[in-house]
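cache lookup: miss for this entity combination. No prior model stored, computing from scratch. Input as submitted by user K.M.:
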Amino acid sequence: MHEWALAESVIKTVLKVAEENSIDKVTEVRIRIGEMQQLEHDVFKSALLCLKPDELKDAEFIVEIAKTKLRCGVCNHEWLFQKEGFEEDVLESIHFLPEVSHAYIKCPICGSPDFEIIEGRGIWVESVKGVRGSDRP
Amino acid sequence: MIDPRVSIIQDRVGDINRIIAVTSGKGGVGKSLLASTLALLLARRGRSTGLFDLDFTSPSTHFILGVRETWPIEDKGIIPPLIHGLRYMSVVYYSKNRAMPLRGIEFSNAFIELFSVIKWGSLDFLIVDMPPGIGDAMLDLIRFVKRAEFLIVTTSSPLAFETVRKLISMLNELEAPILGVVENMKMEGSVVKQEVLRLGVNFLGEIPYDPVVENSLGNVCELLKTVFADSVNKIIEKME
């Protein structure tokens, strides 16, 4: 369950963003997770709720899943990652470290393993919304 | 958009006393063997030690240590398994020893991911087996982990040492601490020690060519009986 480890990094990042932008009360955090990482949505959200400190008690965490797009470095073909067809242990390995997909995936057109993950790799904080001290009545 | 993983890396390595990156200018100088032996001997001295194979595209420490049938433990992160008294991590757990071609940005993504989720816990030493050369691993280690000390391995060959000069120059420029240089497979008439000292860098010691060390690959007990291991033991005295 490295969802917890990633949730911890999200909490730390949100606190840092709030501090840097003088946000006293965080109200909404938008997080995007790449489909390739196959994070357990419920586990991740539950980890966020358990880990969130008092400073973030009013924050709503909105988690969106992003499609993972791959592009072949040889023929430029672009395609979406789909987990169908992979064995469980391979999917689990990709879940832990999406870059190991290079050991298992090849371009469906030319067969090259030389591709890049151009969208939807892992996890990122898209936005942090809140109220600054000076915004309050 | 912010990558949240970077923010947690310092916490993940916060309980590690010393991080030693075993690096070289060129491949084939015995870096992985030195990193593995160094980690094993530190553990034998009662130091809590981890070994992290950062050579994602050509990992080999699992082969040296004879790693079999272990798996990282998931517990709100990834706990490296204990092997021969070491906390050990390598991408081979996930790549299943298949070839894994990675370009720069993807190396960095894998680096950040692993450093942000691996929970090393409290360690006296984390030994990092680096890929050769001045590349993503070295730059990322300096940028994200910040406090690694670099132990440079070379052979007596002028070809290997020529790349070490550049490596030392770059590490100095980046203000990264250099623990010292180890000369492996030392040949008669070598001037590496004098050259290292002339560059103002610590010379940690030399390891003679050990023709039987290859026979011990995969067998830790045999490895620790070799002349190679004896020499590494002497180098540890100078490191501590």
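stored under new cache key. The helical segments of chain A are 3-20, 41-51, 88-96.
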